[in-house]
Design brief:
Length: 177
């Protein structure tokens, strides 16, 4: 029995150091592979960012153009035609704003949630101003009357609805540079 116990201890003397070495090798390899994985993930993220950044800038450019195009002064210059009634002008203005918005709706994928919410709010506020002005001038008014009423409403507000969104977009783009 003493002989068997000494053989067991002798055998353990070989396996314990081997187990310690095996455990150490496992930890070293695991750490190496974890670091390698992290580096690869970082490289992939950088590659995606590199490809995504031009698309984000283009989205911000398109939204800035959208906001400029739906600003009431720009909108009225483009849409107003001689001989239109206030109702015709209102209808054309609303159709134009909605068409511009629908044309740029996919840009929300590339911009921040905050930026997109401000763009939507600017569009909704512009539509609201058009509708309020139209209700104020009545059914028999001319396009010129509606035009004048829209500008009067804008003069009473602190900022044109699109200005706040445009300022935010400009600020956000500058953060990327």
């Amino acid at each position: 029995m003493i002989m068997d116990f000494s053989k067991l201890i002798e055998t353990l003397m070989y396996f314990i150091p081997a187990g310690i070495v095996l455990g150490a090798v496992y930890l070293v390899i695991k750490r190496f592979l974890d670091n390698d994985y992290r580096l690869r993930v970082i490289e992939v993220k950088k590659a995606i960012q590199k490809d995504l950044m031009p698309m984000r800038f283009q989205a911000y450019e398109r939204l800035a153009l959208f906001l400029e195009r739906i600003s009431p002064s720009s909108l009225l210059i483009r849409v107003n035609r001689v001989g239109m009634s206030a109702r015709e002008l209102q209808s054309e203005l609303l159709i134009t704003v909605r068409a511009e918005f629908e044309h740029n709706i996919t840009q929300q994928i590339y911009v921040s949630h905050e930026a997109w919410e401000l763009v939507k709010t600017a569009k909704e506020d512009t539509v609201r101003i058009i509708n309020i002005a139209s209700a104020a001038v009545g059914d028999s008014a001319t396009a010129a009357d509606l035009n004048k009423e829209i500008f009067e409403i804008i003069m009473k507000t602190e900022k044109v609805p699109t200005a706040k969104a445009l300022e935010f977009i400009n600020h956000e783009v500058k953060q990327f540079m």
